[in-house]
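Bug #2210: token dump truncated for Metallo-beta-lactamase superfamily protein?
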Amino acid sequence: MLSNDAEARLKEFNDTAFPKEMITITDRVRIAVGWGHSNCIIVEGDTSLILIDTLDSDARAARLKDELSRLTDKPVKTIIFTHGHPDHRGGCGAFRDTVEEIIAFAPKKAVLKGTERINPILNKRTFRQFGYGLSDEELITQGLGIREGHAIGDGVYSFLPPTTLYTEDSVKRTIDGVAFEMVSAVGETDDQIFLWLPEEQIMCCGDNYYGCWPNLYAIRGGQYRDIAAWVDSLEHIMSYPAEALLPGHMLPVLGHDRITEVLGNFKEAIRCILDETLACISQGLSQDETAARVVLPETYRCLPYLQEYYGTVQWSVRAIYQGYVGWFDGNPSNLNRTAPEKYSRNLIKLAGGEQAISAAVKTALEESEFQWASELCDLLLGAGETVSEEGKTNARHWKAESLRQLARLETSANGRHYYLSCAKELEKE
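Reproduced locally. Full output below:
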């Protein structure tokens, strides 16, 4: 979402959303917030510690391990992953000397065959989304937590493979005297689970809830995240009488009434976007028309835990649209679109040539129409030999400036990073 106060809002969010704390929830359960990009939940068993996720790097997990040794002499013998994202598993290797079992759930839907063939571009887009090439000043915040360790020289990913991989929908176990119910909960990932500790009345929800608008779609790319299933998972989580909700990122939510309020609003806001998007599709609206029409009702838009600091509503709408009906919007003109280079050449010719487009870009920049300026630059950059080398050089410079200005207006950390990363790439060409 673009907003004139985006940078100030992101700075405030970064300063308050994930302070470094070791928070005691009950005599048995603590949560380490701000020790890494993600949280680590520590459960004390009769003779050992059970970790739910392990932070994002070996160095950070080693510091956590040292802290735990000051609290208890019980070793870490069990690790449970809420899902497979590397920022939740990257510190696992720090516990290799004592861990005896590592538990995970298999994805409910397999990754598309051949995905490994596009990993280079997915990795490039991931680099942009998370701002790995940006300075701390440029980045402001990585969104869900402090910057990942591997991005700033604070350790590396250190993975250990699961020793127990469940395919069931739900598993109940007692681990070192602590009762757990582990439940498959498709949402941000297809291997996502939540963990219910009945004796403690604690719900560990992984990344299906955190305190801002979620990545219903990640701009780095990936398979469609089933939003309807995500809503169902949130309803399932809410069916438990939790007194503490411990998310995979940011601060816990405490008290049953508060959990019901927060999760209820979070769930209904997502359901609202899904329902409104499907309504627009059923009316025959295009993806662009739908993305422009669907907005969060004010009831949800003002809530602090639904601000667009990570994902955005518009990206969510576009993902839902494509997830349900694919790329074709029903307009026959789009069945066989003019090839991009020819399209750019034709529009430049129609507008009066390269100089006319260049003048329009300058005007757009002067009038703070940064999105329009960027789109006009794309015409110049996409028209092949029709545009002079000087014109393309100017267009790269203007587009980089447009992206930097858009970054200043973007409330989503991911969007900000993508704008700035691409601006840097253009300046190097």
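Output looks complete on our side. The CA atoms of residues 139 and 421 lie 10 Å apart. Marking as cannot-reproduce; reopen if the truncation happens again.
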